[in-house]
Amino acid sequence: MVLRRELLRGVVGAMAGTWLGACGADGRSPTWGRFRRGVATGDPRADAVVFWTHLAEAVGDEPLRLLVATDEALRDVVASRELVAFESAGHTVRAEVDGLPPGRTLYYAFETVRGERSAVGRTRTAGEGEVPSVRLAVLSCASYAHGFFHVYRNVSQVTNLDAVLHLGDFIYEVADGFYGSLRAYDPPHECRSLDDYRRRHAHYRLDPDLVALLGMHPLVATWDDHEHANDAWPGGSPWHDEATEGPWAERLRASTRAYAEWMPLGSVEPLWRSLRFGDLVELFVLDTRLQRDRPPADEREARAPGRSMLGEGQRRWLFEGLRASRARWKLVAGAVQFSPHPEFWNLDAWDGWAVERDALLELVASERIEGVVFLCGDGHKSFAQDVPLDRRTYDPATGRGSVAVELMTPAVSSPNLFGAEARAFEAMVRAASPETKFVDAEHRGWLWLEITPERLLAEHRFVEDVERPDGGRERVAARFEVRHGEPWLRRTGP
Ligand SMILES: [Fe+2]
In CATH, which superfamily holds the domain spanning 129-493? Predict the structure, then answer.
């Protein structure tokens, strides 16, 4: 482990002029002047990527240039664009650039007319045709107030990822001290207005570990509730009181607009989309938060027919997309947990929309759709489990009867349970849910995926301690394999 870490540090260090070359005298604080919030890319296609930056201390609208090259010194330029940091966009800049070469690592930077230059970022276009492998990092839930983003730093140092998939709670909207108190927020109050949400995103983007992550890999993101407000749905949030806080619709417009400005994605209308990595992987990115209808009051309502988590348009798109997909593996990535868990029945997740969940599973089973893997976050826990169509015909010893698998990535820093309480929860899940092959309710970390035509490998990787600045040491907590055509988990380590 130590040796591997040293090697990785060497590789990143060799990219002089990117992160290390632009660091301040203390070797840590980035000093990219007005580009201090870094650069980012997202939604990689075979020929296109979305590029993003923010220009601080800009007055009015300010022109910028984007350079994209095949080399880190930006000599072999493959694309350049004249852009504008508009005041109306809070001086964020977002541009989808097409005509790029497929399956390539690319480098880029932004420049002002005054000659100021951003850090050199690194990104990657998706492969085309026969892609031998795809590697992804899956992330969720970064409560800034609860600790350091060691997970982001660690993922930024893995040099062979194709993309980073973030399943929401990229920011938290809460007030200082309300949920965690290790690090202070700006603004200190709960986000409600456009200015608040912009400031919160801007504050997160000064975190050096997050800046490193976004500068190193293309991001594929979807939102969960805390980009808006706790347990949000289109009609409200239990933490939003219209009588004292104003119209919910206005707040939702503000949070959505700030998200669109600050995240390197193509569009938020709609947020759901699919990304292809050649013939190997089709990644269906869901909006499981803001298309849903009213949350159920109880379990009886949760099982009522006609209710939708996806909403009509997204549901049709997903069902047709899964049916038509020619990709060997179909990753279905949403914020909230898909699998049923009667032992803790989470009405904010798919448990609250049981009939639509069954319809989706019926589709996978009846159409014999192979290579389906559900990915989720939101829980601040780790899960690896089989997804049977019918628990009565499922064999937990062999996995037969399962039609897909689901993996939940742990939180980057948000807490759940600790010590004896966590162990008790895990024991309860194991007793009630034989399809759950791994569960952990305590540790922070991330999910590593490597996909080839024959199999998918998954590792839950945990960090030591998010409250300590030096607590980023990592270990593999569980390793699983899923063979194509045999949709169940096989534990291969550790
Ligand atoms: Fe969360």
Answer: Alkaline phosphatase D (PhoD) (3.60.21.70)
Cα(225) to centroid of ligand 1, in Å?
8
pLDDT in tens, 183-226: 999 999 999 999 999 999 999 999 999 999 999 999 999 999 99
Going from the Cα of 169 to the center of ligand 1, the distance in angstroms, rounded, reads: 5
* SS3 state at 422: helix
Which amino acid, 453?
A: P
Domain extent listing, the chain: 16-126, 129-493
Q: Pairing between strand 163-166 and 121-124?
A: unpaired
Q: How far is the CA of 331 from the centre of ligand 1 (A)?
A: 21
Give distance in angstroms: CA of 323 to centre of ligand 1: 31
Rounded to the nearest angstrom, the distance between the alpha carbon of 223 and the centre of ligand 1 is 10
In angstroms, what is the span from residue 414 Cα to ligand 1's centroid?
A: 6
Alpha carbon separation from 239 to 196, 219, 232 (Å, rounded): 16, 29, 9
pTM higher than 0.90? yes
Length of the chain: 494
Q: How far is the CA of 268 from the centre of ligand 1 (A)?
A: 20
Convert the pLDDT of each residue in 34-59 to its tens digit: 999 999 999 999 999 999 999 999 99
**Å from CA of 336 to ligand 1 middle:** 10
How far lies 120's CA from each of 47, 111, 220, 347, 479, in Å? Answer: 20, 11, 20, 44, 34
CA 137 from centre of chain? 8
CB-based burial of residue 445 (10 Å sphere; 0-12 exposed, 13-18 middle, 19+ buried)?
buried
Name which CATH class applies to 16-126.
mainly beta
Q: How far apart (Å, rounded) are the C-alpha atoms in residues 68 and 99?
A: 11
Same fold, 16-126 and 129-493: no
For ligand 1, the distance from its centroid to the CA atom of residue 457, given in whole angstroms, is: 25
Kindly give the distance from the C-alpha atom of residue 213 to the centroid of ligand 1, in angstroms, as a whole number: 19
Cα 99 to middle of ligand 1, angstroms: 37
Q: Which residues contact 383 (CB under 8 A, 6 or more apart)?
A: 337, 339, 406, 407, 408, 436, 438, 439
